[in-house]
């Protein structure tokens, strides 16, 4: 098993959380150029919820390595909960982040991250917040995250274009920070009885809408795109049941037929207490072809909800919760996207691949390893 060696001239290995001055000293590279191949094709792999501390389960890396070698993607998205609350020091945070980026760094594959609800779980101990994490991720040679949109809630809200074979933009990637947890109170009221996850805020929805319009004006057409967020939208549940209020098998049968749903749903969707309105904005603009999340580890379904794919990427990390009993690790996997610039909408297919496809040990136990070496900065 190849665990992914450290790439030369990558991130600084610091034993303390980088403050503003320290972050400014991290290496900076010219962003890798993203472009469709000569055959007009482009492949994206999404890893979700690697979610481990500095002593990662070896099978998480084995799975990432196997998927990368099999699918040979042009871009990888680490879509939130990249680490968990077990990191008690800044060095352990850096080691946990480094573990999950080395499979791409060692292969020279461009990659980007979003944040989930667990990335800052031990902030009170390690003092490394998401802004500092983003600076650390961006210090790697093959990272393609751009600076977070100024004045917008969260970290890493951004978009970047993928050029076609003619050198003009053919596809766009949206990355949004879906937040962590709802506050204890809002306007003097608590959230008892409501979901206590976070939600996309109005300024994020507005930023997407305005930026989408600006891209259309600049390029004189809408650029087809995918959006990656960690926490699902409420519309995922509506789609699954073909209803807002119904929760019966008959409701799901109607939703599955109407929306062409494939994949598994083994736990309730866990959105926040408010519907952000992002889906309405997306459907109105018509450029986003799919919204994909993680968060709910044992859901892998995808469907077409009124012209927009809504889907899960399952869960990559073996160190997190999964199914019950001996089936705990059955759904560890990744989602793959195939793009063809000659096709209408560009996105031509998406599918899941699983650890079982690669003969990886699915035993329901812990197989943690020592941290991968931090690269020399």
UniProtKB/TrEMBL annotation:
- CDD domains the record matches: MPP_Dcr2 (cd07383)
What InterPro entries would the database entry show? Calcineurin-like_PHP, Metallo-depent_PP-like
What SUPFAM superfamilies does UniProt report for this protein, alphabetically?
Metallo-dependent phosphatases
Tell me which residues make up the Calcineurin-like phosphoesterase domain.
43-298
Q: Can you tell which superkingdom this protein's organism belongs to?
A: Bacteria
Q: Which PANTHER family match?
A: PHOSPHATASE DCR2-RELATED, PHOSPHATASE DCR2-RELATED-RELATED
| Protein name, entry field | Metallophosphoesterase family protein
């Amino acid at each position: 098993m190849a665990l992914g060696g450290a790439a030369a001239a990558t991130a600084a290995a610091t034993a303390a959380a980088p403050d503003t001055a320290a972050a400014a000293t991290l290496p900076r590279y010219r962003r890798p150029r993203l472009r469709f191949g000569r055959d007009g094709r482009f492949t994206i792999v999404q890893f979700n919820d690697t979610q481990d501390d500095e002593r990662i389960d070896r099978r998480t890396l084995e799975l990432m390595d196997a998927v990368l070698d099999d699918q040979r993607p042009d871009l990888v998205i680490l879509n939130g909960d990249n680490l968990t609350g077990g990191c008690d020091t800044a060095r352990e945070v850096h080691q946990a982040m480094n573990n999950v980026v080395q499979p791409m760094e060692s292969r020279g594959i461009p990659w980007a991250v979003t944040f989930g609800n667990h990335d800052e779980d031990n902030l009170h101990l390690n003092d490394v917040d998401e802004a500092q994490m983003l600076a650390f991720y961006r210090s790697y040679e093959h990272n393609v995250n751009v600076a977070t949109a100024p004045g917008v809630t969260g970290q890493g809200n951004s978009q970047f274009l993928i050029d076609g074979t003619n050198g003009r933009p053919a596809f766009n990637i949206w990355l949004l920070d879906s937040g962590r947890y709802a506050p204890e109170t809002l306007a003097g009221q608590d959230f008892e009885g409501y979901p206590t996850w976070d939600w996309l805020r109005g300024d994020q929805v507005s930023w997407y809408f305005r930026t989408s319009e600006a891209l259309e004006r600049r390029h004189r057409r809408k650029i087809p795109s995918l959006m990656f967020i960690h926490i699902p939208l409420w519309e995922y549940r509506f789609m699954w049941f073909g209803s807002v209020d119904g929760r019966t098998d008959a409701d799901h049968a109607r939703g599955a037929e109407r929306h062409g749903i494939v994949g598994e749903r083994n736990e309730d969707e866990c959105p926040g207490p408010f519907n952000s309105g992002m889906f309405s904005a997306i459907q109105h603009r018509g450029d986003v072809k799919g919204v994909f999340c993680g968060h709910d580890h044992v859901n892998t379904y995808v469907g077409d909800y009124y012209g927009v794919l809504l889907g899960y990427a399952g869960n990559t990390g073996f160190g997190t919760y999964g199914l019950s009993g001996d089936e705990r690790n059955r759904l560890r996997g990744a989602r793959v996207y195939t793009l063809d610039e000659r096709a209408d909408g560009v996105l031509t297919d998406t599918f899941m691949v699983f650890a079982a496809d690669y003969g990886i040990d699915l035993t329901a136990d812990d197989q943690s390893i020592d941290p991968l070496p931090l690269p020399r900065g």
